[in-house]
Amino acid sequence: MAAVELYNDSNFRRKLVETNSDTPNVGNDVNDRVTSIVINQGTWRFFTDSQYRGVSADLGPGRYPNIGLGTIPNDSITSFRRIR
């Protein structure tokens, strides 16, 4: 099971990527497309810019069906890393 799962649409539709690794740049296919997230392990910090810059938000284990309700708007994640 991957520690992080990123989805294109709300309510975990259209999986974009699943990983256990820090990601300094999600790449063109994922950049600014994430709307929902599942955190299976650890606490992760998500950033609006590459190389862990820009606005950030920390998410621990859980299911986040619409990240637009939090600190980072929908479709704005570009990098992320595990912090715990």
Automatic annotation (TrEMBL):
Assigned keywords, A-Z:
Repeat
Q: Which residues form the Beta/gamma crystallin 'Greek key' domain?
A: 3-83
Any matching Pfam family: Crystall
Q: Could you tell me what this protein is called? A: Beta/gamma crystallin 'Greek key' domain-containing protein
Family membership noted in the UniProt record: Belongs to the beta/gamma-crystallin family.
Taxonomy of origin reads: Bacteria, Bacillati, Cyanobacteriota, Cyanophyceae, Chroococcidiopsidales
User: Would the keyword Mitochondrion turn up in this protein's UniProt record?
Assistant: no
What is the native source organism of this protein? Answer: Chroococcidiopsis cubana SAG 39.79
SUPFAM superfamilies (UniProt xref): gamma-Crystallin-like
